[in-house]
Amino acid sequence: MTQIIIASIGLLASVITASLSYYFTKKYQSKMEERKLKEEYYKSFIKAFSDVAIDNFNDEAQKRLSEGFNSLIIIASPNVVKELMEFHDFIRPQNTTIPRDSAEWLIEHDNRLRILVRAMREDIFGKEKNIDKYISQVHLVGKAPRRPHKN
Questions:
Q1: What is the arithmetic mean of pLDDT over 36-52?
Q2: What is the Cα–Cα distance from 139 to 124, expressed in whole angstroms?
Q3: Which of 49, 40, 13, 11 lies closest to 139 in space, CA to CA?
């Protein structure tokens, strides 16, 4: 009888170990798939945002940026959505709290962009040590397309 009890305990322990291993593996895989999906959405958004920053008159880029903003509302963490909406409210043409042609506007723009990028990174990678030290300034770079000269 004792041998049956010992064998049953061993079998039960094996089943529990296998079940827990399966559960945690699936949970990890799901988290990695979510992380990859968010990373793709964030990269698409930054690409669209960069395209608009480089050429604000490009209708396709404006459309991709709008789609990016709207898609992130669904896929991003609540903190990213909050920072995204604050950034959007700031860059909207209707916002006249700071004149757009001022250095103050550019500084505030880059600061809000840095906060948004930091929130996106935190959503993908979790808390990063010393992130503010390494991401103290964020701005987009690129070259505007050539426009035909008007004569």
A1: 91
A2: 20
A3: 49
For helices 78-91 and 59-75, what crossing angle results, to 10°?
A: 150
0.85 exceeded by pTM: no
- Average pLDDT score, the chain: 86
Q: Please identify which residue in the block is written with the tokens 């604050």.
A: 86
Can you give the pLDDT at residue 11? 85
CA separation for the pair 9, 14 (Å, rounded)? 9
Domain edges within the chain: 34-134
Residue with tokens 């701005």: 139
Write out the two tokens for 124. 């993908």
Question: What is the 8-class DSSP label of residue 144?
Answer: P
Tokens of 145: 């397309």
